[in-house]
Amino acid sequence: MFKIITHNVHKYQEMKKIIPSLEMLNMEYPEIQADRLEEVVDFALNYLADKIDGNFIIDDSGLFIHALNDFPGVYSAYVFRTLGNEGILKLMEGVGDRRATFKTVIGVHIAGENFKFVGLCHGYIAEKPRGTNGFGYDPIFVPEAYDKTFAEMSTDEKNRISHRGKAIRKVSSFFDRFAPGTVDAEP
Ligand code: IMP
Questions:
Q1: What is the per-residue pLDDT across 105-134, written as a single tens digit (0 to 9) for each?
Q2: From atom 16 of ligand 1, which residue's Cα is the shortest distance away?
């Protein structure tokens, strides 16, 4: 069994489209406050390594808004809980440069070793929330070269261009090359 440790069913559903054999283990783990998502993932991988039986992955993501000096970034979960999308839009009122980047770091624990895979998606903060699909900041993020927010896309459409889609496809090809048979990956 190959599992993702998360309490976020949306992340699981997005990744399962790329790795159909993925299972979900709904379990909390400490997310340290650090300057980079990579550090959060390193800490969690080491913390979980002796608590989880077998291979697993974790996902830590954030939204980095250029005009706000990359805020909320590593504080994305806390800011979403406290300010939400409306709060972000308030901070962006009158701001001309609406560029933002979504980043996912996937931590992989396999055969006692840890690896990290990164995916980025560049885009813009919308003027208003749009769409009902997805989760989190999806209604206010418009990926580059698109008019729709992530929340106006299907899971497949989001996966093709998203930070998480890119990172999980790297994980999938890593398994194909270095640990064939670990997962049943879609082409
Ligand atoms: P975490 O990876 O669960 O710590 O995510 C940090 C914050 O970013 C949470 O509030 C998530 O809802 C949000 N988030 C993570 N990934 C995405 C995404 O793909 N779309 C929109 N929001 C996201």
A1: 999 999 899 999 999 999 999 999 999 999
A2: 61
Q: How far apart are CA 50 and CA 60, in angstroms?
A: 20
Place of tokens 């300057």: 35
Structural domain contains residue 135: yes
What atom in ligand 1 is closest to the CA of residue 135?
21
Measured by CA distance, the residue closest to atom 9 of ligand 1 is: 77
In this structure, are residues 47 and 28 in contact, taking their beta carbons and an 8 Å threshold?
no
Ligand 1 atom with minimal separation from the 164 CA? 19
In a domain, 9, yes or no: yes
**60 is a catalytic site residue:** yes
Quick one: which of 100, 116, 135 has its CA closest to 45? 116
The total domain count for the chain is 1
User: Tell me: the pLDDT tens digits for 51-81?
Assistant: 999 899 999 999 999 999 999 999 999 999 9
Structure tokens at 35: 């300057």
CATH of the domain at 152: 3.90.950.10
Examine residue 82 and state whether it is found in any structural domain, yes or no: yes
Could you tell me the distance, in angstroms and rounded to a whole number, from the CA of residue 179 to the centre of ligand 1? 29
Which domain covers residue 158, as residue numbers?
Answer: 3-178
Structure tokens at 21: 């054999």
The pLDDT value recorded for residue 177 is 83
73 lines ligand 1 (CB under 6 A): no
Quote the pLDDT of residue 168: 97
Q: Please pick, among 60, 138, 147, 184, the residue that the annotation labels catalytic.
A: 60
